[in-house]
Design goal:
Elements lengths: L2 H20 L11 E6 L4 H10 L2 H16 L11 E7 L5 E6 L2 E7 H7 L4 H23 L8
Parallel strand pairs: 1-2, 2-4
Antiparallel strand pairs: 3-4
Helix pairs in contact: 2-4, 3-5
Length: 151
């Protein structure tokens, strides 16, 4: 690769990296949405979610901020998500997001979690990471800019 191309790539990367770091969103400026957490599964699979997460509302709120730090550089860019209705229930599938800001709904399948869990302590850590990973995926959909709410 010619030297001039390498320099150009380095300049572009450095400029992008600097703008990303210099524009970071502060937690104190972030609007934390209200979380309405509902667990509709009264079986062991349903209680497993809360047993593993301990404080699901806090985890959801913390991850809202983490997702926005990745997606946006300025607080003004972030869609105004006021409420997230998060439901755990037993259905086929894993998780889904619906709605558009200011109100978002996210569902999570307790059946999916029950199939993945075997009860070992190490498995609890793995399941916690799975829950947070799925949550992060759905929150990305909740906060991403879209084409007018058609998905």
């Amino acid at each position: 690769m010619p030297y001039s191309i390498r320099i150009l790539i380095l300049i572009c990367f450095t400029t992008y990296s600097f703008s990303y770091v210099s524009g970071q969103i502060k937690h104190s400026d972030f609007h934390v949405p209200k979380i309405e957490f509902i667990n509709l599964d009264s079986t062991a699979k349903g209680s497993l979610y809360q047993d593993i997460t301990k404080n699901p509302k806090k985890i959801i709120q913390d991850n809202c901020f983490e997702v926005c730090k990745v997606l946006y550089r300025n607080i003004e860019e972030i869609p105004n998500v006021e409420v997230i209705k998060y439901t755990v229930s037993d259905y086929k599938g894993v998780s889904a997001k619906s709605g558009v800001p200011p109100e978002i709904s996210i569902s999570f399948s307790s059946g999916y979690l029950g199939k993945q869990f075997n009860g070992a302590e190490q498995d609890s850590i793995r399941m916690y990471n799975e829950i947070v990973g799925v949550l992060t995926h759905e929150l990305t959909h909740a906060y991403q800019l879209d084409d007018g709410g058609r998905y």
